[in-house]
Amino acid sequence: MMTLFDYDFQRTETRWKLQNESEYNYLNNSARPGIEAFRNVAENWFQKYPKEGRKDLRSRFRSQDDIPHAGAFFELFLHEIFTKMGFLVNIHNKEGKKPDFLFSKENYSLFYLEGTVINCRKDFDLHNNKVIAQVYDSINNINSPNFFLWVRIEGTISSAPSVRKERIKIERWLENLDPDYYYEFQKSTDIYELPIYKWKFQGSIIQLIAIAKPPCLRGKQGIRPIEAYLPGGVKQIDNATMIKRSISDKAGRYGVFNIPYIIATNILGIFPDHTDVVDALFGQEALEGVIEEVLVRCKNGVFIGPKGPQNTRVSAVLVFFDLNPFNLASNQPVLYHNPWASKPLLLNEFPFDQVVYTSNFNQIPAKISLGNLLDLPTPWPIPDDRDST
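Predicted structure:
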């Protein structure tokens, strides 16, 4: 039987994922209860996935590159949730002639759906830099029972430094900090007023910001020191343009349809939000007027351009933010309807949060959570010993 994961060895790893490790390798090798639960769920989904598409999806799911893996995971997830909603799902091959899925009920074709992953973290998140990933993994080996570390790197590092030489200094610095004092102090101060350790290397500076742990977590084993990664330097973040570019590419790829067409996207990164999506779809906000300025939307979105409505073949865009195995139950997708769609969707067909634009934006609340729709166990993810203590 074809499976997503390997079952010919005994799993013993209970550590956290390394930064320099692929998503698939971690999911395949970890013995943590939450990971095992996800493997069981994913295998169940995979066995329900159409046989003609399993080989291709499995190959991409097992990729050592996190983006193809994320794409395969997203397709598997989309197939499952729409099956749970009562749709019959037909998949299309990867020749690029049709969208990923055709959904139907009672022998009536209802809509096409194309899934895509938008990687907004690639230019701003050092997670994708293998050298920086080695730095993070090394810092996570530092003994820090009372403080989390926020890491900020200023400059470019071409090779990983040896943390062993610096470790004693860092641990001594942390030992001399009072966690009770800083736990209260950090509640009402700017982050850069907190203790900062500056480690100079190759003309760059690695900053470690000490964040006092709550008393219940101090001294506990198995908790990684690094709690957050801060972008270094000044970077212009324009997620709306990246989202617009990706959705526009999908919008015009397949020609005209005689039924509605949905683009579903999983937007990766910690910075994108629904403001970016609205700007991408409906145009960016700008001030207009001479005597009295008013806030208007520019005609530079996916749904509307300088000449008026465009990409009318796209009925709606279904948006997920950073969907992953650990937030399946809590992720809150939003379905943005195209008000100028040539083939509009029926509002009552979908249980997600929905946004409908007339003269302003109106939101229709979700009818059910993803966790309930997918019949996931509660809590999700299933906690292991370190999570429950």
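Summary: The radius of gyration is 24 Å.
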